[in-house]
Each structure stands twice: as C-alpha cells, then as structure tokens.
Amino acid sequence: LYYEDENKTLVQINNASPLRQKLTELIEKDKKHEESFLIVMWEESGGHTINVLNPARKDNIEHIVFDSKFPIIADKYPVPALVLITELIARGHEISKSIDWSIKGINRTIPAIDKKKIKIMKNFMKNDKKALTINKKEYKVSALSDNANNVDIYRLKSADSTLYFRP
Q: Do 24 and 52 fall within a single domain?
C-alpha cells in the first residue's frame, strides 16, 4: 500500500499508522470533518473493497476514528460495488464530484520471451527513482514493493500520465 506525498513521491505503508496520520492531516487541513468519504481499494488480483466512511471522533492520540453505517463490501467481482454506487446515487449523493477523473487506465498483457523480459526488468530496476525519457516525454520510475520487499509493480509517471506494469 502506498500514498503519494506533497512532492509526488510514493511512500510505502506497512501498517495503518502512517495512513491514519495522513488522513487525519488532510481532513484537518481541508476542514472535512462533516464530509463522507467513498473509499475504494483495488487489489492487483482483481478484487476490491468499497465503503463510505465518516470522520466520527478523535481517539486518545488525536487520530480521527472513522465509522460507517454500511458494511464493508469486498468481492472479486464488481457487482456489489455497482449496487452500492447505484444506491448512493439514488439517495442523492453526487458521486461524480468525488471521483478523480484524471485516473485513466487500460489493462494490456504484452507477450515477451523470458530472457527479454528479465533484461527489461533489470533495466527498470537500475532506473528506480530516476527519470527516463521516452519519445520526448519524461517519466519518473518507481519500483513498488510488497510487504516482503519484493518488487511487485513498476510505475512510470509523467506530468500527465501514469503507467503501471508488473515484472
């Protein structure tokens, strides 16, 4: 799990504390105590988790504690999420205002010979945290690791696009 800091650098989260702290800071800064947040997490495997959270109160160390009147919906298939989103729209929630429309993506598998794939991945490993120029466009390379610190996904980020791919 990662979040993007103010400098657009990815920060890996191995436990809940940094994420909770970051959410608390953002809610305090933007004075969003009365807002509801639609939280959606997509898993690489194709599953997802979705819920509506409300900042309820602060705990004894000043972190915001969230509550929800809905059960967590998690599933490999999109039907439960679609049902929940449809119900929220029917109740008058303006979901489109809460969506980051800059996020666009495609899912494409590119066949490769193993030796060629290994060579490509080693080159990306060497360029982690560096900038690459492809067709006159600059991309920052980031290797994203799992909790065992194995590179799981690479991210190429330019000023106007982001590309994710797996080794």
A: yes
